[in-house]
């Protein structure tokens, strides 16, 4: 297939492009201006476009023969004033309407819908990377969490489930029953760092990361990787609890090895049946 990659910030989009190429796919990269570093894509055909130039992006992908689209990398949602939409983007925004003012889930579903209307099939970046796998249920690495850690996991699950209708975030950090932080627009890594500044004396906390009800998994699946583990270690956490069957382990071997070296547990749970 001919793949169009909409690339935001960070190293992940380049890994997606490399993996897709190794699998025999032709890749054309749209570097989103202000987020993506074009220097990371000199070995791929690419162009740089601002995020508000939706019409130019769509036309370029069609000109390049792209049939499938993958979205990867960090992109901060722009304000309406800074977006400066072109004609195509303005029409698309009018079609999706209230989703623009809603949480990420509603917005991502609208993006997938609009791209589908333009004739593209949206695929998940994780489906293209060989060493990314969905977490199976059970203890993946480390010592089994004790009663206090399990209670913190239960508290985290309850908090995220109650917040799910608000479409806020995927993650929470809980220490000794106290919610130190809830993920919002800052992302999981920033949440972990913030929670580290608020940590209490005594046993460390737990990061709990779950998918949200109705989450668009092709665009915004919950993911942990080596960076997540490094942040958890720096912030004094004891472990990470993720949702079995839905959370992606990016660079699985490296992630679990890093957790083991840091003395952290990684536990994949069924949130509907977890008992503290």
Structural class determined from secondary elements = alpha/beta
What would you call the shape? globular
Please state roughly what percent of the residues sit in beta strands, choosing from under 5%, 5-15%, 15-25%, 25-35%, 35-45% or over 45%: 15-25%
Could you tell me the CATH topology label of the largest domain.
Answer: Cytidine Deaminase, domain 2
The CATH architecture of the largest domain is: 3-Layer(aba) Sandwich
Number of domains: 2
CATH superfamily of the largest domain: LpxI C-terminal catalytic domain
Mean pLDDT metric: 88
Largest sheet: 6 strands, mixed
Distance between the termini: 46 Å
Strand order of the largest sheet: 7-14-12-10-8-9
Radius of gyration: 19 Å
| Helix and strand element order | EHEEHEHHHEEEHEEHEHEHEEHE
In which range does the helix fraction lie? 25-40%
Characterise the protein shown here.
It is a single chain. It contains ten helices and 14 strands. With 276 residues, the chain is α/β, with parallel strands linked by helices. It folds into two domains: 127 residues, Rossmann fold, CATH 3.40.50; 137 residues, Cytidine Deaminase, domain 2 (3-Layer(aba) Sandwich), CATH 3.40.140.80. Helix 7 runs parallel beside helix 9 and helix 9 runs parallel beside helix 10. The longest helix has 17 residues. The N and C termini lie far apart (46 Å). The model has no long low-confidence stretch (mean pLDDT 88).
């Amino acid at each position: 297939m001919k793949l169009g990659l909409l690339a935001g910030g960070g190293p992940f989009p380049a890994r997606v492009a490399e993996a897709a190429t190794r699998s025999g796919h032709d890749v054309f990269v749209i570097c989103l201006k202000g987020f993506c570093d074009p220097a990371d894509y000199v070995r791929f055909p690419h162009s740089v476009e601002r995020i508000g130039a939706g019409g130019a992006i769509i036309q370029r992908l069609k000109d390049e023969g792209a049939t499938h689209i993958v979205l990867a990398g960090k992109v901060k949602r722009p304000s309406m004033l800074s977006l400066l939409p072109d004609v195509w983007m303005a029409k698309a925004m009018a079609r999706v309407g209230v989703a623009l003012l809603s949480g990420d889930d509603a917005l991502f579903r609208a993006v997938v819908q609009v791209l589908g209307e333009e004739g593209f099939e949206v695929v998940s970046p994780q489906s293209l990377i060989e060493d990314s796998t969905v977490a199976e249920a059970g203890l993946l690495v480390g010592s089994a969490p004790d009663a206090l850690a399990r209670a913190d996991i239960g508290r985290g699950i309850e908090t995220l489930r109650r917040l799910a209708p608000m479409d806020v975030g995927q993650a929470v950090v809980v220490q000794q029953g106290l919610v130190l932080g809830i993920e919002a627009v800052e992302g999981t890594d920033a949440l972990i760092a913030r929670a580290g500044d608020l940590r209490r004396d005594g046993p460390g906390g737990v990061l709990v990361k779950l998918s949200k009800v109705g989450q668009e998994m092709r665009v915004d699946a919950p993911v942990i990787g080596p960076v997540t583990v490094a942040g958890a270690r720096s912030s004094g956490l004891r472990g990470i609890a993720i949702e079995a069957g839905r959370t992606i382990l990016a660079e699985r071997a490296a992630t679990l090895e890093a957790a083991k070296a840091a003395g952290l547990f990684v536990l994949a749970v069924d949130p509907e049946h977890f008992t503290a």
